[in-house]
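Good morning,

Attaching, inline, the backbone tokens for the sequence recovery test we're adding to the shared suite. The designed sequence is right after.
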């Protein structure tokens, strides 16, 4: 087993945004801090700056790195931790210099890795075409829209497609980095490293458990009152006919209007709302699963577990453990 060299692409001098520092620091910590008692030699980390010109408007920190963008060619593993915010918010292209370097590194045999929004760089370089990939769940719809040749999966923490790997956002990048250590140096080394970082060696489920299941508000004002009413009465055995009647529409018209407004069918919309209600109750109460199933309209605990595992990816119990209820603080008058 061999660790090899890791080239981490760092947005140099343009300013690393505060919210992107986390994705930069994860691979820097995992691959840049020697662990001689676990594996010697450890990884050879190269922080490779993009060399972009500084911008007064750039938030965060400006970084200087000992390696340049061209130095990613020849590395065993190349990691892109993020792309500039304007790539996501304004549709700006990824730097042509970075795209060229990524293609050359891939052609030279490097293992290509992205964390969070870094998937947009790999996708623009054509390295994700025909492959399954992921990104932060807030960006996956945009990734799928912008790069239709990519099979985007928003339910997982990371995707290992052999020589190209992608992760979801934030802490999912740590899950992927530990997975790389496990691939390179074995489970024992990865497990011991995880213990030192005080994190699980492997987290159950995927990022589906972190996605906000509530459907965004619709612009269809004719539907808004009935949908609000349905959310307030999820403990009832609601049917499409009930909702259509309350909206004063035919079943067919209601079905069509709701699908146009939310992108989903009435039955799937109801199930999503029930699961969202169950998530909220699991997070905010100590109610037993049986009672939560009743209040969310899912009937039985077994039915709740079935749908929860299918859509959220973990059991209700595992979800409650991941999002423990915060203790109430009572103010005491002095």
């Amino acid at each position: 087993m061999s660790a090899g060299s890791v080239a981490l692409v760092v947005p140099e001098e343009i300013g690393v945004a505060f919210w992107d520092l986390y994705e930069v620091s994860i691979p820097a910590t995992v691959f840049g801090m020697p662990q001689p008692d676990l594996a010697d030699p450890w990884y050879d980390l190269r922080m490779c700056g993009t060399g972009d010109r500084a911008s007064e408007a750039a938030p965060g920190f400006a970084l200087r790195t000992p390696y340049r963008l061209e130095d990613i060619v020849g590395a065993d593993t190349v990691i892109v931790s993020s792309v500039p915010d304007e790539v996501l918010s304004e549709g700006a292209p990824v730097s042509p210099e970075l795209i060229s370097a990524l293609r050359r590194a891939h052609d030279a045999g490097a293992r290509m890795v992205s964390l969070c929004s870094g998937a947009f760089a790999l996708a623009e370089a054509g390295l994700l075409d025909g492959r399954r990939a992921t990104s932060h769940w807030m960006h996956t719809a945009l990734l799928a829209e912008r790069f239709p040749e990519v099979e985007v999966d928003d339910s997982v923490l990371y995707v290992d497609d052999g020589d190209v790997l992608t992760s979801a956002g934030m802490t999912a990048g740590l899950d992927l980095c530990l997975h790389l250590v496990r691939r390179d140096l074995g489970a024992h080394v990865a497990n011991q490293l995880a213990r030192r970082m005080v994190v699980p060696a492997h987290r159950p489920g995927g990022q589906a458990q972190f996605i906000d299941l509530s459907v965004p508000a619709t612009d269809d004002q004719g539907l808004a009152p009935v949908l609000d009413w349905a959310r307030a009465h999820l403990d009832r055995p609601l049917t499409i006919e009930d909702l259509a009647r309350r909206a004063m529409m035919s079943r067919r018209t209601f079905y069509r209007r709701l699908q146009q407004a939310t992108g989903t069918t009435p039955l799937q919309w109801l199930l999503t709302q029930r699961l969202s209600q169950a998530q909220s109750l699991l997070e905010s109460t100590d109610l037993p699963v049986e009672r939560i199933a009743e209040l969310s309209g899912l009937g039985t605990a077994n039915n709740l577990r079935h749908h929860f595992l299918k859509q959220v990816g973990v059991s209700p119990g595992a979800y409650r453990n991941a999002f423990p209820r915060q203790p109430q603080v009572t103010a005491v008058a002095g």
